[in-house]
Design a protein that fits this description.
Length: 475
């Protein structure tokens, strides 16, 4: 037996014996051979057996410029020669300060349509869930310290995902996933998502993708705004903040929001004194074809959460930005007890901050945001050309490179597959066999390549995905 095979067998045995994988049904996991990634080159992941895969999900939506980009590698090595970690509790570090200034400049670049204060303060954590978790505390604490103490609940968009910690789970509660934890979560108010699928599935709707008309989007938007209006009418002065993923609800199934929806939500929140928390953990930093998804509608939220791509997909670092008004609510004399008692051991880790500075510098240098927009149009055109006539492609939703291809039992009338058929998973397994790494969300095949990917790699990836959809027996 070759060394590679022996090593694979050994690693698989250890993995099966000791590793508990996230979001994985572990019994079924152990029935299959895992793909064990050992290294990468650019946009290609290489497993211990030497098999290559195009990284079609950018290592869970975080890789930006490809793997082993020398500029980021060097920035981390350079920082490693100085210090790997020092705490931000009671001291500061050079890269965390530099990065905060850089982020403030970047996120305020687009002038908002309506005057709104700049996002001027940066609070570091280390994951998307921790970025949203502190955002909730910023919002609740802001109202508390301003003596607006009735504002103790949140509005969330149904199907939203904000992470797996208890607060994040509370605003993104999904019965199918979170039932055992129902007693742990706090209650929130929910509004409908502007989800065009609800219109597609309604009686009398006759269009099929790609001919779904603008009317479908308008109707979905109106329904969701109606539910926002009624939530605000009933609970308006109790709402600390509305939390949403702008433009694209990612993990909820790539639910694309109609143009103008975000702007309408932002203005309703403002009218009712509720803060707007934009969770741009997935959509931020180029993926939608703008630096921030909020930039598309010239909206500046009160609180902004960034994570995933912040370090170019290298290291765990997250940032929650807020206005001076919010941070100042937590300032006062010691006896007033206004301090935000919140933080983590690795908050603002210098290696992560150095990687983030290098990644953001590369984004400017390589025009990564424009590249993501270009990749997005290629994805749109190629999927239209090759899948428009496919009887089981119900919808393709996309913003920049964030793409969901929904597979359905029937396009008209709209009918989903039985979940037990695991149609989305079969297509992704087929793509993996042919060297493209993607992951489904139910029967939504998700493509989310790095915003900095080159066109040739993207085309090769699309060839495999399209063949996998066309070649897998779906009916
Ligand atoms: C919009 C959004 N918020 C928060 C999170 C949680 O991020 P993390 O997995 O880094 O905790 C995710 C992860 O997919 C996300 O998509």
């Amino acid at each position: 037996m070759s060394t590679i095979a022996t090593d694979f067998e050994r690693l698989m045995a250890l993995d099966h014996a000791h590793v508990w994988h996230p979001f994985a049904p572990m019994r079924q996991w152990r029935e299959c051979e895992p793909i064990i990634i050992e290294r990468a080159e650019g946009f290609t992941l290489i497993d211990v057996k030497g098999k290559e895969y195009i990284d079609g999900y950018s290592s869970l939506w975080c890789n930006v410029h490809g793997h082993r980009r020398p500029e980021i590698d060097d920035a981390i090595r350079d920082q490693l020669d100085r210090i790997a970690h020092a705490t931000m509790l009671g001291s500061a570090t050079v890269p965390a300060i530099e990065l905060a200034a850089m982020l403030v400049a970047i996120v305020n670049e687009v002038t908002p349509a309506q005057t709104s204060p700049k996002l001027n303060k940066v609070f570091y954590t280390d994951a998307g869930a921790t970025a949203t978790e502190v955002a909730f505390k910023m919002a609740a604490g802001h109202h508390f310290h301003r003596a607006d103490r009735a504002r103790d609940t949140f509005l969330a968009v149904r199907g939203g995902y904000h992470g797996d910690t208890v607060g994040a789970m509370s605003v993104g509660f999904l019965h199918s996933m979170h039932e055992p934890f129902e007693k742990l979560v706090f209650s929130t108010q929910n509004i409908a998502a502007p989800d065009a699928r609800s219109v597609a599935a309604s009686p009398g709707f006759e269009h099929e993708w790609p001919n779904w008309d603008a009317d479908r989007r308008t109707r979905a938007s109106e329904q969701a705004l109606g539910s926002l209006e009624s939530a605000l009418r009933t609970h308006g002065n109790r709402i600390a903040a509305l939390v949403m993923e702008p433009l694209m609800q990612g993990a909820g199934g790539m639910i694309e929001h109609p143009d103008g929806f975000l702007a309408q939500v932002a203005s309703r929140c403002r009218e009712h004194g509720a803060l707007l928390i934009a969770d741009e953990v997935a959509t931020g930093l180029g993926r939608t074809g703008a630096m921030l998804a909020c930039d598309h509608e010239r909206i500046r939220p009160d609180i902004l959460c960034l994570a995933k791509g912040l370090t170019g997909g290298y290291l765990p670092l997250a940032a929650t930005l807020c206005t001076d008004q919010i941070s100042e609510s937590f300032e006062g004399e010691p006896h007033e007890n206004r301090t935000l008692y919140h933080g983590h051991t690795y908050t603002g880790n210098p290696l992560g901050a150095a990687a983030a500075i290098a990644s953001l510098t590369l984004m400017q240098q390589d025009k990564t945001v424009a590249n993501a927009a270009k990749l997005g149009s290629i994805i749109r055109d190629r999927l239209r050309e090759s899948l428009a006539d496919h009887p089981h492609v119900g919808d393709v939703r996309r913003r920049g490179v964030m793409t969901g291809i929904e597979l359905v039992a029937s396009r008209y009338p709209w009918q989903s597959f039985a979940p037990a058929k695991r149609i989305g998973a079969s297509v992704c397994d087929e793509a993996r066999t042919h060297g493209v790494m993607i992951r489904p969300l139910g029967d939504v095949v998700v493509l989310n390549p790095a915003p900095g990917m080159d066109e040739d790699t993207l085309h090769r990836m699309l060839d495999v995905v399209i063949d996998a959809i066309r070649g897998t027996r779906l009916g």
